[in-house]
Known about the structure:
alpha/beta, Aminoglycoside 3'-phosphotransferase, Chain: A, domain 2, 19 helices, Rossmann fold
Amino acid sequence: xxxxxxxxxxxxxxxxxxxxxxxxxxxxxxxxxxxxxxxxxxxxxxxxxxxxxxxxxxxxxxxxxxxxxxxxxxxxxxxxxxxxxxxxxxxxxxxxxxxxxxxxxxxxxxxxxxxxxxxxxxxxxxxxxxxxxxxxxxxxxxxxxxxxxxxxxxxxxxxxxxxxxxxxxxxxxxxxxxxxxxxxxxxxxxxxxxxxxxxxxxxxxxxxxxxxxxxxxxxxxxxxxxxxxxxxxxxxxxxxxxxxxxxxxxxxxxxxxxxxxxxxxxxxxxxxxxxxxxxxxxxxxxxxxxxxxxxxxxxxxxxxxxxxxxxxxxxxxxxxxxxxxxxxxxxxxxxxxxxxxxxxxxxxxxxxxxxxxxxxxxxxxxxxxxxxxxxxxxxxxxxxxxxxxxxxxxxxxxxxxxxxxxxxxxxxxxxxxxxxxxxxxxxxxxxxxxxxxxxxxxxxxxxxxxxxxxxxxxxxxxxxxxxxxxxxxxxxxxxxxxxxxxxxxxxxxxxxxxxxxxxxxxxxxxxxxxxxxxxxxxxxxxxxx
Length: 529
C-alpha cells in the first residue's frame, strides 16, 4: 500500500472511531463494535450496521478514490437487494470532518452502506450446528436461487465475461498463485495432478463453455455464494454479501455459482445438503446440461479457497488452521477428479400414488443421485411451472400420445446429461409400457452403466386414497386424479421375464430403509454428519 492510501485508511479508521457516539445516530444504539476485513470496516450499533469501503487497491479491487467508494457502495446496495432487500437499506453519506463526522452530512467525506444488523446466532453456520436448518430449507433455497438466476441479467456477446479464455485464465491463475504450496506441506504431486486434469478439462469443455455463454447461461450472479455469506432469518436461508467490487467474479456461468456452495457444503461434511440443493435447483430451472461442467467448477472453487489459504500463510495473521485448510481444499479437489463414473441408471415403475417420488426424494441426499421427474419435464416442455395446472383432459392435451412420447424423449436426454457427467440418474415416471422401459435399458447399455427398475407397488385402494390426499394440497407437479389412475390400471404392462432381472420390487405400504434400498440399487452412500 502506498503512502497516500495508507494515510487515507488511517483517516477512515479515525472517522469510524469518531462516529462511535450515540449522538451521531438517529436510532438507539445498543453497543459499538467494529469488524475489519481486507477491504471493509463495519461499524456495528445493535440494530444497524454501517459498512465502509477501505481505500485500498489489491489488484482485484480498487477503492482508492472517494468516487469509487461511492460507486461501489451503490453497487453493493443494488446487487444485494436482489436476494436480501430486507438487509440492505441505503447508501449513507458521511459529512463534516474526520474529527466530527455527520451521518447524512454534505459534502461527503465518506460513504457507507447501512444494513440491518443480525446476531451471531443467525449466521447460517451457527444455525446449522444448532440443528435449526434442514434439507427442506436447502431445497427452498435452491428454488429461490433458480428464480434469481432466471431473472439475472445475461452477459451479451460483446462482454468478455464467462468466456472459455476467461475461465482458463481464472483456473490457471489458481496454480500460479498457489505455486509450490505452503512450506512444510508436501503436496507437489497432488498439485501437479490437479493442474494436468484441469488443463485437460478446459480443453475438453472449451466448446461447451462458449455454447453455454451463447445460450445465456453466463449471468450477473451473486459471485460468492457459500455458507459464510448466508444467514438464518425468518425461518429461511437468506443470501447476502455478493461481489460488487469486481464484475469478472460476478458475471459467471450459473453452474459455477452453484459449485461454490456445493463445494463449501462438502468441506463441512454435509454433502447430503448439497445433493438436496442441487436436485432442487435442477428441477426448478432445468439446467441439466450444466452438469458436464460441474466437476471442473467444483475443482476450481476448491482451489480458489486453497489459494486464499496460501496467501494467508504468508501474512502475520496466519494461524495453525491455515495450513490445515489449504491441505483440506487440495484433498477435496483431488477427490473430485478421482470420483468414478456413474453408478447407474435407475427408472421407477408404478401407478400414480405408488410412492415413486417420495421414495426417490429420500434417496437423493443419501446417494448424491440426480433425479428427473416426468411430471415436471412434461410441464416444462409446455412452458408451465411445476405446480401450474395444464387444464388437460384425460388422455388429451399434455397427456396425449404425442406429448407423452416427447416427455420420455426429454427424460432420456436428461438421463444422458447426468450419466455423461459421471453421476447416477434416477428417472421418476410411471414407465407403464414395456417399450418405454426398454428404451432406457438400451440407453444404459449404450453408455455402459448398470440398469435398475425400482418397481413401486401398493393396492389400488391405497393408491386412490393417496391421490385424493395429494389433490387436496395442490402442491405437487402431478396432475393425476382418480380417473387417470383407473385408466392406468387398465393400461399397465407387466414386467417381462427379461426385465425381472433388473427389477427391485417395493411394497410402499411398508417403511422403507433408504440406506438398504440404495445398496440394493447399487447406489453409493454419501458420508455426512
